[in-house]
Amino acid sequence: MMANPLRSEVVRLYKNLLYLGREYPKGGDYFRDRLRAAFIKNKDVQDPERIKEMIARGEFVARELEALYYLRKYRAMKKRYYED
User: N or C, where is the chain less crowded by C-beta within 10 Å?
Assistant: First the structure.
């Protein structure tokens, strides 16, 4: 069986999401379990176009998580320095 050329991209995305999930508000374990379940659910997909769509969706989730963390940091700093 030939290795899928998108495999490295999927693994990179998984590792990136796993890293970002450590700071998740409901806890890293909660996020990791959900992430693992999502990847396992789609492990048998073979169509390269479908895989690319799912990678794009995963990258969108990564950007949303980053935005969530930046917003949380901003709010914490604002609360620390301003009386609102």
Answer: N
